[in-house]
Amino acid sequence: MQNDLPEEVNKLIGKNSFTDQSPIMIQKGLWQNFCSSIEDGNKIYWDERVAECHTEDLIAHPAMLPSWVHDFEWHPQRKKVQPMELHFHLKNILNLPLGIVTEVDIEYYLPIKDGDAISANQTLLSVSELVKTKLGEGRYWVIEVKYFNQLEILVGKQNIHFLGYKK
Known about the structure:
- This protein is an alpha+beta fold.
- It has one domain: Hotdog Thioesterase (Thiol Ester Dehydrase, Chain A, Roll).
- Helices cover 22% and strands 32% of the residues.
- It is built from five helices and six strands, in the order αβααααβββββ.
- β5 and β6 form a beta hairpin.
- The longest helix has 10 residues, at 28-37.
């Protein structure tokens, strides 16, 4: 616990603060569209016979894991959900209107397959003391995002490092 942080921020450290649920089931056509756009011909994303030998079935491209829990920009029956809501919540509490991602670490544990549904939990791991950077005065923080499949099995984990600042 840091003394110079608002109590509201101290209470967030180490706690699951926000949960996101995939708005859609994982679909082969979506990851194949992604693979097409980056020209990734790895057969475990495309060829069921080859994938069967290595991963038992076609799998989604791992780079797409974070995208599966991002809701649509607009949907006629739902309120818009802010991606990485914990980050924006922190910026508001700390009165730091600007922010950038400085580093991302991601670990993959299980492949994502057609028909899976992904959820994610956001947890604040740390917040730095006030720092002065070329961008302005602010703080660094780290948010851990854990991704689960529909069986509530951990399939991946991402630590995102941010700098929130003001000029």
